[in-house]
Amino acid sequence: MMIGNWLDIGPITQIEPGTARTLPVVGGEEIAVFHTMRNEFFAIVNKCPHKQGPLSQGIVHGDVVTCPLHNWNISLRSGKALGDDEGCVPTIPLKVDAGRIYLLRSAVIGAQDKAA
Amino acid sequence: MNAPMNFEEGKPAGQVRERLVVIGNGMAGCRAVEEILARDPGRFDVTIFGAEPRVNYNRIMLSPVLAGEKTFDEIVINTQEWYDDNGITLVSGDKVVEIDREHKRVVAASGRIEPYDKLLIATGSDPFIIPVPGKDLDGVVTFRDLDDVDKMLDAAEKGGPDGGQGRAVVIGGGLLGLEAAHGLNLRGMNVTVIHLMPTLMERQLDEAAGWLLKTELERRGQTILTGANTKEIIGKDGKVAGVRLEDGTEIPADIVVMAVGIRPATGLAREAGLEVERGIMVDDHMVTSDPAILSVGECVQHRGLCYGLVAPLWDMCRALADFVTESPSGYEGSVTSTKLKVSGIDLFSAGDFSGGEGCEDIVMRDASRGVYKRVIVKDSKVLGAVLYGDTADGSWYFDLMKKGEDVSDIREALIFGQAFASGGALADPNAAVAALSDDAEICGCNGVSKGQVVSCINGGAHSLDAVRSTCKASASCGSCTGLVESLLALTLGGEVESGPKTMCKCTSFTHGDVRKLIVEKGLKEIPQVMQELHWTTPDGCASCRPALNYYLLCAWPGEYEDDQKSRFVNERMHANIQKDGTYSVVPRMWGGLTSPKELRAIADVVEKFNAPMVKVTGGQRLDIFGIKKEDLPAVWADLNAAGMVSGHAYGKSLRTVKTCVGSEWCRFGTQDSTGLGVQIERMTWGSWMPHKFKIAVSGCPRNCAEATIKDFGVVCVDSGYELHIAGNGGIKVRATDLLCKVETEQEALDMCAAFIQFYREDAYYLERTAPWVERVGLQYVKDALGEEGAVERYAARFHYSQQFMQDDPWAKRAAGEHEKLHQHLAEVRPFPASQMENA
Question: Per DSSP, which regions of B637-768 are E strands?
Fold first, then answer.
């Protein structure tokens, strides 16, 4: 994969395990980047499929985030709502290399296209 | 000039041996040669270059050498005789400095030139040195070869500057760092481990196992600092003196061991123009981009992966030997497992344990033996395993994993290990329990046998709880809960009564059990509670984490460190999240009183941050809406400047004290209700509770402050103060119960503090006072507070706890605490061109 396809968003240490931080996209959908307690990283659009709650502010357990507004559980891996709830939030391919986090550039913008 | 040609006896005359030159006398290089010799001893004329001035030794056994458990001689793999017997030329202590691909020869530092037909690069890896000031000071070492070990042993022998115990700092809490720390600790040094991540060995362990490891190492006298970032290494007279962390902490040190990781040693290959990414690129036969050059070991990158463990090396060497002896097999990558070589600590990790879609965690914990086992299963196959304390079945799980065996038949008993799961009929845990004899012990804590449990069940104890209260089986540590449940199922068939609701799906304990056990067993951290109480998930869920955080905060005031990631968003952000993701901010107005200065500051904030709405709340204060998370610290700074603190309108905590104007102004007022309300609020603000807690003080029985629908209500009368509890104005309206009547303000304050503390210590998380009192009964509360000296005791505990709680969270945030919670990572501004490209 060419370097240019990946967007470097900084070192992994800037996100504490068990939390998420946000990445606004001008003219597009804000992205939430998660660092789980099992030391995995995920990026999803920062909007719960239920009522657009900011998922970045939810409690993270395993590879699931619980939306702060109405406690929907969203899989960070697939973006899908878990349990009896139905819905899906776009995920953004992410890779970690040499301690830095990269997002797939086209998906960062793709998330915006979908929203437009 | 050509190299001297050798003719092998027994070979057809005229066949010339090919010249194989190996760069690297380490484990990979020598193993590759051994593998080749085993297949075809006469094929090559072998020359091995080693940078270290010694024969080949087992590098992974350096840890036991450091720890004094082995000597160098014991870890030598190939002695000089081996080189001699096999006709191998060993050039040790002379480093290869150049690969001349055009002339097919290598050049060593001494000037020695060696031509090759096949070249094998096995340069391994170099320790990664973090680029901090002071990294080059004398006394900063890595942990890679025997010279490093010698330096560490010297430091241990020399001791501290005053002749006392030597002090070592190990940077890096991974496999290597911990083994170094262990060795230095055994050698009598005072050891501190600094680890950047919050979990030790986070690549191999999950949070639960990492916590167990940390606790054990601390018990052995090491200081473990996790989440600690090294800022610089401090020196004195050119020699190391200590380490300074980013938060300013300084740790004195006589030696600093840098063990943060390794990187493939690719310099030679890169300069020779071979294809190199993170490692030297090789195909499945370990051939680099030059067909005459092969590479194995930690220096290679195969199918995108670089390995830092020994097992893949062996696989690579086999594939390489097969290839060069013309029976190619191909290397397809390795599944790796890890064991920590620290005596007395059993730890095993393999495969993928991060969980994921369709993955199922099977967790077993045995607190009395300090065991944590977690096996990850997906599509009936073992995907990974983390074992701590009992690793006997590690290789079995690893084997199941590598073979991709279907485990659906043994799924129920998988976690109990091979002996149990492979037992045919015993694979069903119920059957296994049925097979136990009547005198087999079920509950070790209370010494209860299977026969006793069964007769207790037959005697009418038809639920887990009933068994616990009748014969005490599984009533203590709970680790035999599964066995008791099996016995219930066996004895009763399908008639098991479900007991009281457990805290959440992660545990078989109720909220009450957990609260009680936290105090009884002195549990002080969330991972410790999960381990000791046999949580069935590795890191809990959104229900139990906040509850445990509260219970620990309540049980150990001033000692327990609040866990931000276990807090609901409002309590983490100290503001109320609204449906659009913005926040509302409510500053405290003591007893509902305010001043021009406060009102001006609020008005200024509303204008400065364009808050679209300000509303008077039901709790007699002002709510500022529409504040963005990144603006919160600035809003709070402005409000702080006018003397206002957080109103905790967002917390499971004391919210507000509502008052009426009372005797100071009101013609009906009997007492100074506003004054008392302010005093109560000053006393109670900042306290975390099981749920939100509202107080009101009315100046007369007309009750304008609506005190009889509050958690704690005071109604002033001529002769004193009526104290009411457990009211609720929410979904289900409940009027308060009268707790008691007191004569003085001080008595009212004392009873308020005592009642709150009793509620804090007794109720379940997310249980408001109304359902709590309905559950336990008013008399229970009256009895508890009516005991001799009880009010004083509870009030004293409340005041003690308040010392640590009454610390304005806004002021800390405005000063920069947890700033990452408020800041975006960055902002993406796509170029118009790339937008079009992806449109």
Answer: 654-659, 693-698, 712-717, 720-725, 737-742
- Nearest chain B Cα distance for residue A25, angstroms: 5
Structural domains for chain A: 16-115 (2.102.10.10)
Nearest residue of chain A to residue B361 (CA atoms): A62
Q: CA B379 → CA A64, B389, B404, B791, distances in Å? A: 20, 27, 10, 58
Domain B140-260: top CATH class? alpha beta
Local structure of B183: helix, strand or coil: helix
What's the whole-number average pLDDT of chain B? 88
What are A92-102's pLDDT values in tens digits?
Answer: 999 988 789 99
Backbone phi and psi for residue A67, each to the nearest 5 degrees, phi listed first: -60, 135
pLDDT of residue B445 exceeding 70: no
The pLDDT value recorded for residue A4 is 64
Structure ipTM over 0.85, yes or no: no
Where in chain B do CATH 1.10.10.1100 domains reside?
Answer: 434-562
- Give the CATH architecture of domain B434-562: Orthogonal Bundle (1.10)
Considering only the beta carbons, identify the residue of B227, B820, B828 that sits closest to A25. Answer: B828
Chain A residues near residue B539 by CB distance under 8 angstroms: 37-38, 61-62
Q: Is residue B226 over pLDDT 60? A: yes
Q: Where in chain B is the domain with CATH 3.30.390.30?
A: 346-427
Is the CATH code 3.10.490.10 the one for domain B569-651? no
Query: Which residue in B has a C-alpha nearest to residue A63's C-alpha?
Result: B356
CATH 3.50.50.60 domain locations along chain B = 18-125+264-324, 140-260
* Chain B CA closest to residue A81: B357
CATH 3.40.50.11270, applies to B346-427: no
Is 70 exceeded by the pLDDT of residue B1?
Answer: no
Q: Does residue B6 carry a pLDDT above 60?
A: no
CATH of B654-805, one of 3.40.50.300, 3.60.15.10, 3.30.413.10, 3.30.360.10: 3.30.413.10
To the nearest whole angstrom, how far is the Cα of B377 from the nearest Cα of chain A?
15
Q: E strand or H helix at B639, and its extent?
A: helix B632-641
Q: Where in chain B is the domain with CATH 3.90.480.10?
A: 569-651
Asked if the C-beta of B631 comes within 8 angstroms of chain A's C-beta atoms, the answer is: no
- Around Cβ B192, how many Cβ atoms within 10 Å? 22
Please list every residue in chain B whose beta carbon sits closer than 8 Å to the beta carbon of residue A7: 828
Highest mean pLDDT, choosing among A50-54, B437-441, B612-616: B612-616
The H or E element containing residue A59 is strand A59-61
Architecture of domain B18-125+264-324 in this structure: 3-Layer(bba) Sandwich (3.50)
Which range of A91-105, B447-461, B697-711 scores highest in mean pLDDT? It is: B697-711
Q: DSSP string of B442-486?
A: EETTTTEEHHHHHHHHHTT--BHHHHHHHH-TTSSS-TTHHHHHH
10 Å Cβ neighbour count for B64?
Answer: 20
* Alpha-carbon distances, residue B338 vs B69, B369, B392, B403 (angstroms): 20, 21, 14, 18
Preferred mutation among A59, A70, A73 to probe B, highest tally of B CBs within 10 A: A59
CATH 3.30.413.10, chain B: domain bounds: 654-805
pLDDT digits 0-9 by tens, B527-579: 999 988 888 888 888 899 999 999 999 999 999 999 988 999 999 999 999 98
Angle at B336 between CA B335 and CA B337, to 5 degrees: 135
Q: Which of B201, B569, B835 to mutate to test the interface with A (most CBs of A within 10 A)?
A: B569
Subunit contact A58:B199, Cβ cutoff 8 A: no
Beta strands in B161-215 (DSSP E): 167-171, 190-194
Question: Tokens 């003397």 belong to which residue?
Answer: B643
pLDDT score of A69: 87
